[in-house]
Design goal:
The protein is mainly α and about 140 residues long. It has a domain at about 40-105. It contains 4 helices and no strands. The chain has helices at about 25-30, 40-65, 70-105, 115-135. Helix 2 (about 40-65) packs antiparallel against helix 3 (about 70-105). The chain is rod-shaped.
Length: about 140
């Protein structure tokens, strides 16, 4: 047994409850258990499901004769491609928002710009202190 194994009696205490991972979400819902959905896991699952559908459409259209492709099949493939494109765009927007929030929380740390005037003043102050202390 390693330090990650639970050797006690009953369920371990803490925020991580056995069986609530994204893979067990459907099983818990089927059993009628109240489950707080992990929205990120659900969004990821939906995104990859659309990507899987898009790949299936691409493979199907690549094998078909272009003159024999039904308009409805082509329309569905285009809709799926648009959905994936919109999901990627939304993902990038949300990632940018998270990055901005992280920078805002960190404050002025690593603001991205170098204030040369302030740096020059600081160097001048330190040199003046050294001159006073060293007599030179």
């Amino acid at each position: 047994m390693n330090d990650m194994d639970w050797g006690g009696v009953g369920d371990p205490e803490g925020p991580f409850v056995a069986g609530t991972q994204a893979g067990h979400l459907a099983a818990l819902k089927a059993e009628g258990a109240p489950v707080e959905e992990d929205e990120i896991a659900v969004a990821q699952w939906l995104f990859w499901d659309y990507v899987k559908d898009l790949r299936a459409h691409q493979a199907e259209l690549a094998q078909a004769d272009p003159r024999e492709i039904e308009p409805a099949r082509l329309k569905k493939a285009v809709e799926t491609a648009r959905t994936v494109r919109d999901a990627i765009s939304l993902l990038m927007q949300e990632r940018n928002k998270v990055d901005k929030l992280r920078k805002d929380i960190a404050g002025g740390v690593g603001g991205g710009s170098l204030d040369l005037d302030a740096a020059r003043d600081e160097v001048g102050r330190r040199l003046a202190c050294l001159r006073r202390a060293g007599g030179g």
